[in-house]
Amino acid sequence: MASTAEGAQDGVRRRDWIHIAAISTAGVGGASVLFPLVSQMAPTKDVLAASTTDVDVSSIEPGQSIKATFRDQPLFVKRLTPAEIAEAQADDSVDMRDPETLADRLGEGNADVLVTLGVCTHLGCVPLGAGEGEDKGEFDGYFCPCHGSHYDIAGRIRKGPAPTNLAVPEFEFASESVIRVG
After folding, report:
1. Is the model's pTM score more than 0.85?
2. pLDDT per position as a tens digit, 23-43
């Protein structure tokens, strides 16, 4: 009888080992199927490269704007003059459709570089005013020729059908002369 009990005990051990081996094999198989499914959802290298844009602002004189591209959209970068800063700060208290102060739009630690997406918030047209000689509208900022939205020097909506201000994308100073948008 003792040999039967030992045989049963050995059978249980062998069965346990088979269960462990089967579960381990299933786990490895499941991981090998799951890994490609999850990794194919990651962004490709070209998408990651387009997720940020570096803009050299060292050559922008006060009062001057440049146009760049960020995620296939126009990007306006303007270095404000002291007079423009004073004008925009004076308008901070004016009743606006989408109230934002100049300090909110410039960001922390930034005194004079305004970065906005060059896309009208009404229907997505590209406003004028960032290029030399372009119509800046009634508030000396940006003017959307499609439907007549007027933005002030800080890109805040002041007149027309646009519901909100020109969007300010996330950006930081990568160095004293380069900003990284995105």
Report:
1. no
2. 999 999 988 988 888 888 887
